[in-house]
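Q: Structure tokens for this one, please.
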Amino acid sequence: MDLKCRVKNFWIRALHKNPHLVYLFPLFTVCVCISVSGHLQRRAAGIERAYKYKTIKTS
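A: Here is the predicted structure, written as tokens:
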């Protein structure tokens, strides 16, 4: 059996035994993408703009 067939059979068996994974994988992917993109946008904005409404104590 080649690798492609083995991987396909693995996912068929996994999703047959655990049908809730059909919904969890896309949900997990969307949540991670939103979280990472928000983090990168705040990081690129700079500290003054990212924490505009928070008082930052400078020593």
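A few notes: The chain has a mean pLDDT of 85. The first helix runs from residue 3 to 17.
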